[in-house]
Specification:
By secondary structure, this protein is of the alpha/beta class. The chain is about 45% helix and about 35% strand. It contains 5 helices and 5 strands; from the N terminus they run ββααβαβααβ.
């Protein structure tokens, strides 16, 4: 699992590459801690190369959303595939996040 982060102005884009399973969630938790520090702006999670997400990965997304809400920021989830969209639909995450194609 790889996270590539780019910040311009008050917008941070994090490109998620690979499978976000339990071991990967632990591996990239530091990357999400960095995103939480920037959650007073806009954080875009680019999922165009994200193949899979587990409940551990969903917890990372939720932690980031909660931090953004408390800091007045915004989280946008971009370019999820159909499998991840199904997971988001079943867990109610489609209603929690702004989803862009």
């Amino acid at each position: 699992m790889e996270v590539i982060t780019n910040t311009q102005d008050n917008v941070t884009t994090a490109q998620l590459i690979g499978r976000l399973d339990t071991p990967a969630s632990q591996e990239i938790s530091g990357d999400f801690e960095s995103l939480i520090k920037l959650a007073d702006g806009t954080v875009i999670l680019d999922c165009s190369q994200l193949e899979y997400i587990s409940s551990s990965g969903l917890r990372l997304f939720l932690s980031l959303r909660k931090a953004a809400a408390s800091k007045g920021g915004k989280v946008i989830v971009k370019a999820i595939n159909n499998d991840i969209r199904s997971v988001f639909m079943m867990t109610g995450f489609l209603n929690l996040f702004e989803i862009q194609n």
